[in-house]
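Hey team,

Filing this mostly as a record. A colleague (T.K.) asked me to run one chain through the structure pipeline before their review meeting, and I want the input and output archived in the tracker in case anyone asks later how it was produced. No errors, nothing strange. Just documentation.

Input sequence:
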Amino acid sequence: MLVAFSISPSVGDETGGVAEAVAEAIRVVRESGLPNETNAMFTNVEGEWDEVMAVLKRAVDVVAARSPRVSLVLKADIRPGRTAQLTGKVDRVERLLAD
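Output structure:
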């Protein structure tokens, strides 16, 4: 399973920023040991359903500790038997672009 998610608190810091809360969520993902990557809009994480969902719950919980309301957007690619799709999907497209 490959999941792209974005998480944000409804309440920012004194400047309206949410970076600290988002960093806490990303720390949870990175400490999980699951393959992951973060870009400007989403964090991608790969693993089995139960382990990915447990990581997402922990990420929501750390953000919820800072804010009374949390926004979570996620998109999942559920393809049993496939692994290494975090890089594999991109590699396949890049090969086609190189031709």
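Quick notes for T.K.: The chain has a mean pLDDT of 93. The first strand starts at residue 2 and ends at 9.
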